[in-house]
Amino acid sequence: MMSETVVTIQDASTNANNPRGPTIKSEPGQPNFIAGLTINIPYFKTIPGIIKLAQAVLGIFCSALASGAYSQFLMTFSTLAFVATFIWIVVYLCSIRESLRVPINWMLTEFINTAGWTVLLALSVIWHLIARTSFIGATIFGILDMLAYAAGTYFLWLEWKNTEAQ
C-alpha cells in the first residue's frame, strides 16, 4: 500500500552550520484512493446486482431496437439510463462507495436516480405506444427495461428504509 509523503524543509539560515544540508522531515499522508479499491463480484450475485445487470442488458437492446423509431424519446432515455446504470455498475464493481470517503447518502442517491429513470422510461414507452410506431420490439424491451428499473427502485427503497430505521 502506497501512501503520500509530506516533505518539510526548514529555513536555510538555521541550517548554515549543518554540513549535511537542510533537514527534511517526512510524515505519512492519507492512504491513496486507488489502494482502497477492490473488485466486488459477489454484489452481482445478489438480487439488486442481478437487476442492475438486467437493466444494462435490456437498455442495450431497447436502445438498439428504438434507434430507427419515429419517436426518439425511448432511444434517448434508454441510452441515458444505460449510461447511468453502467456508472453504478462500475461503482459497485470497484467498491467505490466503500473506498471514497465523502459525505454522500449513496443509497438515497441511487434510489432517486433509479426512480427517475423508471418514470422517464414509463413516459417514453407510453409516448412510443401513442405514436403507434411499427417498432414493437423496442416497445417490448422498453417495457421490460422499465419493469427492471421499477424492481430496482423497489429493492433500493426497501434497503434505504432498513438502513434509515437502524
Explain this structure to me?
- By secondary structure, the protein is mostly helical.
- The protein is 60% helix and 9% strand.
- It has five helices and two strands; from the N terminus they run ββααααα.
- α1 runs antiparallel to α5.
- The longest helix is centred in the C-terminal third of the chain and has 30 residues, at 136-165.
- It is elongated.
- It is found in: Membrane.
- The chain crosses the membrane at residues 49-67, 73-94, 106-130, 136-157.
- This is MARVEL domain-containing protein.
- It is a multi-pass membrane protein.
What count of helical segments does DSSP give?
5
Report the uncertain regions.
none
- Between the first and last Cα atoms, what is the distance in angstroms? 34 Å
Q: Which geometry do the CA atoms define?
A: elongated
Rounded Rg: 25 Å
- What is the beta-strand fraction? 5-15%
Helix content: 55-70%
What string gives the helices and strands in order? EEHHHHH
Structural class: mainly alpha
DSSP strand count:
2
Read across the widest sheet, the strand sequence of neighbours is 1-2
How confident is the prediction overall: mean pLDDT? 78
Q: Number of folding domains?
A: 2
How is the biggest beta sheet arranged? Answer: 2 strands, antiparallel
Organism: Aphidius gifuensis (Parasitoid wasp)
Domain MARVEL: 43-161
Membrane topology: Multi-pass membrane protein
Main location: membrane
